[in-house]
């Protein structure tokens, strides 16, 4: 029989595949399921971006292999956006790598930097794709618990010195999936000092960099002096422009890390389809009203959901960014037992916090990825379960 290589057996099981399976079974039985469990934007890509792809697809130039590591015009476009949005200067030639979505880079960076026996510091709870790259590199993860008492920021002083001394790479992610908090500049300053002192490369996952609530624009790690010396930021068009299916992301910052990521990509891929690169450049350099509109849609949904939850006595801190809400589970439940009950009795899918790591236990994640009416309907159904006695 055909046996997988050992490294494949190291890959974490996809917790959320189980969730999707349970939800699909309910849909197959004919139930009207409200899926708040996944992070898939529900709205379409703005039409001017789609038109840019249609036109570019007609151009035979893009039917050939694209240049290795992608077109310079797209690297220039993302550098221009970072300058305008964050005041950050990036050299498009040396400090920008084009990725198939942020996800590929988040997995590849571990393969670039980690040897067996090395440690990677990973937030808990956190986005599970960080685990996969570490597993494939044969290194070991040391979790950094994110606790509500510390505003869901890691406390570097509480980490084991043995782990810190062996660490070569660390992930941070604000606005955070799943806790939905944003980080202040002081946190990034502390991170840069910590990383420089212990010689650790920082991977800042800025997938939700455009989505901040109550007028608070998220801060980019690269805005902070010294950031480029210690790490890179992963940026993606998936959430900002409703382009999750297009698979466009970037690694930005430290030239040496960018060079390594490009090197790995050379071996796996050539680059994205040229037409997609043209459309991605249009997204970044064209009118940005679509981004403002997107933020205000999520803001209204967030406000509507929390007001409804307040009315049924489910109290939680307001999300500061991302398109998620992170809610403490009521007494008597685990995150999984609550998620199971919500699915079976209310036909609502939520993500149990434990799927993001042990420290996620005690919470469930609900996405703001459906209309205000459907969110309201979800809370009406939850109200009937009398979760709060
Ligand atoms: N990082 C976080 C925290 C995410 O939630 C996601 C997507 O869900 C990604 C990265 C990956 O995004 P993409 O590969 O679509 O760029």
Please give the share of residues in helix: 40-55%
- What is the overall shape? globular
- Tell me about the largest β-sheet: 7 strands, mixed
Name of the CATH homologous superfamily of the largest domain: Type I PLP-dependent aspartate aminotransferase-like (Major domain)
CATH class of the largest domain: Alpha Beta
The helix-strand sequence is: HHEHHEHEHEHEHEHEHEHHHEHEEEH
Distance between the termini: 55 Å
Pfam families: Aminotran_1_2
Domain Aminotransferase class I/classII large: 32-382
Cofactor: pyridoxal 5'-phosphate
InterPro entries: Aminotransferase_I/II_large, LL-DAP_aminotransferase, PyrdxlP-dep_Trfase, PyrdxlP-dep_Trfase_major, PyrdxlP-dep_Trfase_small
Which helices and strands occur, and which strands form pairs?
Blueprint: H1 6-9, H2 15-28, E1 34-35, H3 47-57, H4 72-86, E2 96-99, H5 101-113, E3 119-124, H6 129-137, E4 140-145, H7 161-166, E5 167-173, H8 185-198, E6 201-205, H9 227-230, E7 231-236, H10 237-240, E8 249-253, H11 255-268, H12 274-285, H13 289-311, E9 324-328, H14 335-346, E10 348-349, E11 351-352, E12 363-367, H15 372-383
Helix pairs in contact: 3-12, 4-12, 5-6, 5-11, 13-15
The protein binds pyridoxal-5'-phosphate (PLP).
Write up this protein.
Helix content is 43%, strand content 14%. It contains 15 helices and twelve strands. The protein has helices at residues 6-9, 15-28, 47-57, 72-86, 101-113, 129-137, 161-166, 185-198, 227-230, 237-240, 255-268, 274-285, 289-311, 335-346, 372-383; strands at residues 34-35, 96-99, 119-124, 140-145, 167-173, 201-205, 231-236, 249-253, 324-328, 348-349, 351-352, 363-367. The protein has a seven-stranded mixed sheet, with helices on both faces. A three-stranded antiparallel sheet has the order 9-12-11. The longest helix is centred in the last third of the chain and has 23 residues, at 289-311. It is globular and about 60 Å long. The N and C termini lie far apart (55 Å). The mean pLDDT is 96. Pyridoxal-5'-phosphate (PLP) binds next to helix 5. Residues 32-382 form the Aminotransferase class I/classII large domain. This is Pyridoxal phosphate-dependent aminotransferase. It holds the Pfam family Aminotran_1_2.
């Amino acid at each position: 029989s055909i046996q997988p290589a050992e490294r494949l057996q190291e890959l974490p099981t996809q917790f959320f595949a189980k969730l999707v399976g349970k939800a699909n079974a309910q849909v197959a039985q004919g139930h009207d399921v409200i899926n708040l469990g996944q992070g898939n934007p529900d709205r379409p890509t703005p039409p001017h971006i789609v038109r840019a792809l249609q036109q570019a697809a007609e151009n035979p130039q893009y039917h050939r292999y694209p240049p290795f590591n992608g077109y310079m015009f797209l690297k220039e476009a993302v550098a221009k956006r970072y300058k305008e949005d964050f005041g950050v200067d990036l050299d498009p030639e040396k400090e920008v790598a084009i990725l198939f979505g942020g996800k590929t880079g988040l997995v590849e960076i571990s393969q670039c930097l980690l040897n067996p026996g090395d440690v990677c510091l990973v937030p808990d709870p956190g986005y599970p794709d960080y685990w996969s790259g570490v597993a494939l590199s044969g290194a070991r993860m040391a979790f950094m618990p994110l606790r509500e008492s510390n505003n869901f920021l890691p406390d570097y002083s509480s980490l084991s010195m043995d782990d810190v001394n062996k660490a070569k790479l660390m992930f941070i992610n604000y606005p955070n999936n799943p806790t939905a908090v944003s980080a202040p500049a002081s946190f990034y300053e502390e991170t840069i000092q910590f990383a420089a002192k212990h010689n650790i490369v920082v991977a800042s996952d800025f997938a939700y960099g455009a989505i901040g609530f109550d007028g608070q624009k998220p801060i980019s790690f690269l805005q902070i002096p010294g950031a480029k010396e210690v790490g890179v930021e992963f940026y993606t068009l998936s959430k900002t422009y409703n382009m999750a299916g297009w698979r466009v992301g970037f690694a930005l910052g430290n030239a040496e890390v960018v060079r390594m990521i490009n090197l790995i990509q050379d071996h796996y891929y050539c680059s994205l389809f040229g037409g997609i690169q043209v459309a991605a450049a249009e997204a970044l350099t064209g009118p940005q009203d679509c981004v403002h509109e997107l933020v205000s849609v999520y803001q209204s949904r967030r406000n509507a959901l929390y007001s409804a939850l307040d009315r049924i006595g489910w109290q939680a801190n307001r999300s500061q960014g991302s398109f998620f809400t992170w809610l403490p589970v009521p007494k008597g439940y685990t995150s999984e037992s609550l998620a199971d009950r919500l699915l079976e009795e209310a036909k609502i899918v939520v993500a149990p916090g434990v799927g993001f790591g042990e420290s996620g236990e005690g919470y469930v994640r609900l996405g703001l990825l459906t209309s205000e009416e459907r969110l309201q309907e979800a809370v009406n159904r939850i109200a009937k379960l009398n979760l709060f006695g």
